[in-house]
Each structure stands twice: as structure tokens, then as C-alpha cells.
Amino acid sequence: SDYRKWAANSNEDPIPRPLSLYIHIPFCDTVCFYCACNKIATKDRTRAQPYLDRVHREIAMQAELFDASRPVEQLHWGGGTPTFISPEQMRELMTVTGRHFHLLHDDSGEYSIEIDPRTVDADRIAFLTGLGINRMSLGIQDFDPRVQKIVNRQQSVEMVAELTSAARQLGFTSINFDL
User: How far apart are CA 131 and CA 65, in angstroms?
Assistant: First the structure.
């Protein structure tokens, strides 16, 4: 009840405040030993859809609490590894979010995704751009191959450079490295 009251009060501001949304995708296909995030390590991609069905319902329930005209200036898909879900599931997640919240379609918002660089290529980066994602956070952790082996997150500097270059060419406005 306190949360509902807070949400209702926020809708009464004389100047409507923009919204920020965070959507947690807890799945990873491998465990990274440094990670303390809420995660489910599995190679079974079918596990994602029942979770996403519930996320879609949660999005609808949350949207009922907020004035529909309030723009979403920040959207973040975190994890786990959000790129665990398929392109079709990503498209549906963005569609459901846009059905219930006022998403910005002019690149003025910061729409971000956490990425394990081992899970994407230039084509997936282009797909994300088409969804409206304009910021990425690459989970690199370390460039030292010995450290990468210890934390179970091995990717080459060249792979990261190629992804970063592709993202810049495709118009990503912000790229973060988790180190």
C-alpha cells in the first residue's frame, strides 16, 4: 500500500517526472565466478519464456500505477545475461514494455543492456539498435587472460574491440566496460 501511495503521489507532480525502468533477466549459460547477481546458470533456453511471461504481467501491473504520459527516459535490461534470451523474446519484451509505458523512439532516452561479449556479434548488436537500445555495458572484468580463466570469463581484446567498433558504427551513444 505504501508503494501504491508513493506511485500515485509521483503522478501528481506539477511537472510530470520521467520514469526509469529496470528489467532483470537472470539467465546465463555459464557461471562467472566473480558474480554475485541473482542468476540462473543453464544452457536450457526454454527456461526463459515462463519467466518472461511473468515479467510481461509485472510490466502491465506496474504500468497501472503510473500516468501513461510519463516518458521512460531510462530503460535497462540487466542480469544475468539479457542476451541469453532470443531476438524474438527481446522484441516481444520491448513491445510489451512499449504497450504499457511511454517509450521514446527518438534516441533521446538511455536504453541500455548488459552484455557478456561472448554472447553477441555485430548482427546481434544491429538487432539491438533496431529495438531502440542505444547503450551497452560490456562485462569484460579483466583483459588479463590469467584472471579471465580464474573468473571463468574469457574473451579476447580483439573480440571486445570488434564489438565496440560495430556498436559505434551502428550508433550506440554509450558503451561501458565493467572492469
Answer: 25
